[in-house]
Amino acid sequence: MLRVNTSGDKYYAIRYRNNQGKYVRYTIGRHGSITLVQARNEAIRLFGLLSQGVDIQREKNNAKHGNSDICTFGEYLNEFYFNWFKQNRKGDQSTINMLKNTLKNFHKMRLDHINNKKLNMFVGNYQSERGVTNKRINRIITAFKASLNIAVENGFTEYNGIKGVRLLHEDRHNIVRYLSAEEEQRLLDAVNDIYFQYKNIITLALNTGMRSGEILSLEFKDINLNKEYVALRSENTKAQKMRYVPLNQKSIDALQSQIDNKLSKYVFTNPRTKEPYTKNRDWFKKLLEQADIDNFRFHDLRHTFASKLIMRGVDLNTVRELMGHSDIKMTLIYAHLAPEHKKKAVDLL
Predict the structure, then answer these.
(1) Which of 136, 282, 320, 338 is the 20 to 30 A CA-CA neighbour of 75?
(2) How many beta carbons lie within 10 A of that of residue 51, not counting itself?
């Protein structure tokens, strides 16, 4: 039919009953922009689609704006990905915070509208404004890519628009911070004056290389002092694989101290809440101030463990196994600390 609106413009349109039984008008085009024959042919096509159960209004919207069913990045995170991440990935809260806060500029953007150009522009602005390192930028890119890969796998969008974004170059010889012999001694002197549980946490970190989350999630059932190891359950390791960590005498003594002062099923329990400790930040920061140690994180105790092994001649693959690295490439960041293994190689000739 040909309709005339209040301004006098004429439009070709059809009227039909939708799936809810209501009559709906569908505008085909403006008179003068299309001919009567074109309008009639389009009407025949549309009635054919309606007979097949096709929602022609949605088809029209999709053609104009893209698939309207595709949600925004923020909706995807809150309605699916954050829950999926907690159930399927052993990652700390920092990854969720990164997606929630650092990438908030993308939250109102549809998943299929996120692309390389927009991410590269964001990276350039973010790095210039914040002065962050390439390593930090690469963590953001990796977390962003991973979230969109899962979106594709689960049907939220058809493709990952930032799949082709490359990571920035990192000078991996400059990213390992570990304690010098003097710093370690100052730390050990200072740790004698703090709460015994904190002292035992430091001892385990320095002598086993376990991550903070792995230490704090330990339960007494995971400890076997007779065979001198702790068993890290898969749900508590980054690689989501069970790992057996050997114990030296210092670690055994620290764990025995916890056994003698057991407060709950968790090895390290907050005496006030009777719940496991969840972070090491506050007391560790005070400890570093007391020991006069700068530019150091709790995770760097793990680097200290690995670095000492390498500098004492332990081969890279053994260090990889002790650290629980899934890929030898992760262990290679310590390789520059052991130039003697190259000298031994050429001496064989």
Answers:
(1) 136
(2) 8
For residue 28, being part of any structural domain is answered with yes
Can you read off the two tokens belonging to residue 11? 């439009």
Residue 46 within any structural domain of the chain: yes
Q: CB neighbours (10 Å) of residue 290?
A: 15
**Domain membership of residue 59 as a residue range:** 2-65
Same domain, 143 and 272: no
Phi (first) and psi of residue 72, to 5 degrees: -80, 165
Enumerate residues 6+ apart whose C-beta is below 8 A from 245: 208, 209, 210, 229, 230, 231, 232, 322
Residues 194 and 301 in one domain: yes
- β-strand partners of 246: 229
For residue 54, what is the domain's CATH number?
3.30.160
DSSP state of 264: S
Tens-digit pLDDT profile for the chain (349 aa)?
Answer: 666 655 567 778 888 887 667 777 778 887 777 888 888 888 888 888 888 777 777 666 555 545 556 899 999 999 999 988 888 876 567 889 899 999 999 999 999 899 999 999 999 999 988 888 898 899 999 999 999 999 989 888 888 999 889 999 876 555 688 998 899 999 989 988 888 899 999 999 999 999 999 999 999 999 999 999 999 998 888 888 899 999 999 999 999 999 999 999 999 999 888 888 877 678 898 899 999 998 899 999 999 999 999 888 888 899 999 999 988 888 888 877 766 656 666 777 7
